[in-house]
Design a protein that fits this description.
- The chain has 277 residues and is of the alpha+beta class.
- The chain contains ten helices and seven strands.
- Strands 5-6-7 form a three-stranded mixed β-sheet.
- Helix 3 (74-88) runs antiparallel to helix 4 and helix 4 packs antiparallel against helix 5.
- The termini are far apart.
- Mean pLDDT is 92; it is low at 3-22.
Length: 277
């Protein structure tokens, strides 16, 4: 094999590795997870996750919810492990679609909290470099749980299940990446019953916070979420702005009436901890 051929092979191999944070994977359906039971009456028990969120998520005066990772006890960790284990043992295909959405959102968020706890203290979740791939950072590509005999990563749950099955941009406000720039980790679990209110409240809270969208000197600056996942929000600046207008209040709503393009985006990757490590 000559040098050029070897280089070509290496480049092809590199493109198959996990995409680094900041370059979002496309939504690509893993079709085995489409199975569901529209007539299912199974009600999932999310009480353990509710208790964890109630005890350890602290809403701040700045509108950002932070997690008291340093206050999580061994008993709390055991309860969190038990909750994740109970979800992992569930035959997901036997659930209704609404119950499945809550299942995947809560599992994603609980796994994210657990992986942070396993490596705490860290300054950023991106410092938890356990994903496979030479250029990858963070934990998103690591297989963290097994459900119905399939090993799953956070990327699998978000980009191969939640986004392609529900096709709802509000999913981005429900899953939490443990960063200050991310939509809040909520103080309660999502359920099949509260899902619509959960998503609406989350969208409105994030969009009307400066880390979601803000007008600066007449220019619109937004969270990088809208750049990374632009396709989920209409595919261009106009689509993103239309989405923001659906939820904007007060000064933001007034400011959005006069803009037609996005001037820039940013994101704060610092850990959403109540205490700096």
């Amino acid at each position: 094999m000559n040098l050029l051929t070897r280089i070509a092979v290496m480049l092809i191999a590199l493109t198959t590795w996990t995409v680094p944070a900041g370059a979002a994977p496309k939504a690509a359906l893993w079709d085995i997870w489409e199975a569901h039971d529209p007539g299912s009456t199974i009600v999932l028990d999310h009480m353990a996750w509710d208790r964890f969120l109630e005890h350890h998520v602290r809403p701040g005066s700045d509108g950002i919810n932070r997690v008291a990772y340093d206050e999580v006890t061994a008993a709390d960790r055991k309860a969190l492990d038990g909750y994740i284990g109970a979800l992992a043992a569930m035959p997901v295909g036997s659930l209704s679609r609404a119950a499945q959405q809550a299942f995947w959102v809560n599992l994603y968020n609980a796994l994210t909290v657990r992986v942070v706890l396993e490596h705490y203290p860290v300054a950023s979740i991106r410092d938890i470099d356990i994903s496979p791939g030479f250029f990858a950072d963070g934990p998103w590509g690591k297989k963290l749980v097994t459900v119905e005999s399939e090993e799953l990563s956070l990327d699998d749950i978000e980009h191969r299940i939640l986004r392609p099955i529900w096709r709802d941009p509000r999913i981005h406000y429900a899953v939490n990446c443990a960063s200050l720039g991310c939509p809040n980790l909520h103080t309660r679990a999502m359920t099949a019953e509260n899902a619509e209110a959960f998503l609406e409240d989350a969208a409105r809270a994030f969009i009307n916070h400066p880390r979601g969208a803000r007008i600066e000197d007449g220019d619109l600056r937004v969270s990088s979420i809208y750049a990374w996942f632009e396709a989920d929000f209409g595919g261009d600046d106009a689509g993103v702005i239309a989405h923001l207008r659906d939820y904007a209040n007060g000064e933001l709503a007034a400011g959005l009436s006069g803009v037609s393009r996005i001037a820039g985006d940013d994101y704060d990757w610092r850990l959403n901890s109540t205490r700096a490590p």
